[in-house]
Amino acid sequence: MSDKLQKKRGIVVTFLVSAAVVLLAVLYFMPIWWVSLTAPNYPPEAFPDGVRINFHMNGVFNGCRKVDKAEIDEDVALDCVHEMDTINHFVGMYPIASGGVVEKAFSPFLISMLGVMMIGFMITHRGVRLTVMVIGFGGVAAWMYLTYYTPEGLKWQTPGYLSSMVISLDQTSEEAKKEELNPIIAQLKESLRESGVRTETSAPDVEVAAEEGSSEENYQILKSAFENDQTRKPADEREEWTGSGEQVLFWHYHRALGRWFNNPQEINPMVANMHMAGTILFWVVIVGMVAMLVAAWKTTWPLYWLLVIIPILLPVFFIAEYSAWLWWYGHSLNEMGAFTLKPFMPTVFGQGKVAQFTTHSYPNIGFGLMVASSVLLILAALIRRKSLRDAQGNAA
Asked: Which of 75, 86, 235, 373 could pair with 20 as two cysteines, CB 3.0-4.6 Å apart?
């Protein structure tokens, strides 16, 4: 095979993988999946998308749009994350913030790790490949350690992650030290009592503050909420604020679990298990990066293909993870719920029915970008495989 053809193939592989890396970076900031609930008491005039939420890699965000109609006075969109939590808790379901807590916290490091693997696959020269991967993985490991274990490490987290945590606190920035906000459903009832016209109140200030505020502002909101929680504990059980990702993650998780069903005997073991899962995942990422360096040593052995196969499978990993957490929500119903439901599997894809609610669950733009990235990587892998086989044939 001519060197000219090999060079052309190399250029094509570089282009395909580079495009896949760009898509990977972009999709991190995009909604991956969306879910909505529709019911007769949520008319489409006021809820055109139903009670809708968007799943991102680093959190769950409001998917409801502001309604501009003469008969509806609405300054900002309803906070449908809280609305869905309010609906779900009646059947004993834990808040949305209690799912995927470790995965959301580690998502920037996992995505960055995949990006380094993809770049490593793109580079054919072993010395350059290993050098780039060592630098890349070293940066990811340092970032992960600083974020998770060091004081004020939370400041190294992504803005979207901090925003999501603040929104799920159910507090405003001004009231973080004072009190919980009333659920938005109470505001709706109040407005209906006061007027015969359907007038929607604005979403809680916390959502606006979290989405429009800086990372530093959201950090301070979380700190204030943490310190406020400590004042409610006996003096010997209080914890000093460090601001590490680990501390805030599991305080926030404990708070989310106890938002509706505050049963310490049930919650504490769940937090302990998740704490252990966080530690395990931290070291799995470290060991995984070392393993990928070993895999990248030679292009002639099967381990090399892990550099591209694992990123290709990202959509599969997401669906598996998403499905597993849906199963957990449907099979971990708290007995303190107002209504009793048998354990069930929420709809992963398509339309389903739970009581009077119709559920809708579909991929969003981020998942499309994820699939597109995988397709580009598959094409790049096939071309690289052809090039390596031809090169080995010529060498023989």
From this structure: 373
